[in-house]
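[Target chain]
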Amino acid sequence: MNSDHSYQALRPVKAAPGVLVHPAADRRLATEHWLLSTLPAPGRAQARLEWEQHDVAMLPLGALFSAVRFPGRLVAALTVGAEPSQLDSFLVEALDGGPVICDPHHERYYAIVHASMPTTWHDAVDEWRTSDVDCLGRGSYLGIPRPDIVGATRSRATYWSVPMDSAAMLCRPLTVARLIAAGRHCLAAEPDA
């Protein structure tokens, strides 16, 4: 691994007495296996190699998870006056810790959601497209950072803005829809909109 990787601790897990809690390393490994299970066995080794060499691997969407892509300006509209470094913290709160990938070069975010969202939210997605929001599912691929790639650096093409805490822990569609609706409302209220 490169020495310039920053490692962010996963948020603590709240559990009732007597509930087994897995350490962060176990959860991260389970998350890696879950993400890679979107590929047939031969493709998993290639994706691991891509993660090791480039910190990102192209994974297919629509089987285990999908992604809602939204522009950085939508998040910025909700956080007027916030520094770019504060947007990740905002998304942790706004999406209740649901996983989000950031592509800082194209100023886009990808909320990781259940695989069925592109189908079940079809009408809303059609309306969202006017704001450069789209729901990517079956037939699409997304550059997924290795689970420990968090935080922006100049050399990173993508990173986890909000890390995936555990395998299959995804953003709730209604929470994502509310974020998009609020962002669109703020953008529409801007004087130059």
About this structure: The longest strand covers residues 65-71. Helices lie at 24-36, 41-54, 72-78, 87-94, 117-120, 122-128, 173-189. The longest helix spans residues 173-189. Residues 55 and 70 are 22 Å apart (CA to CA).
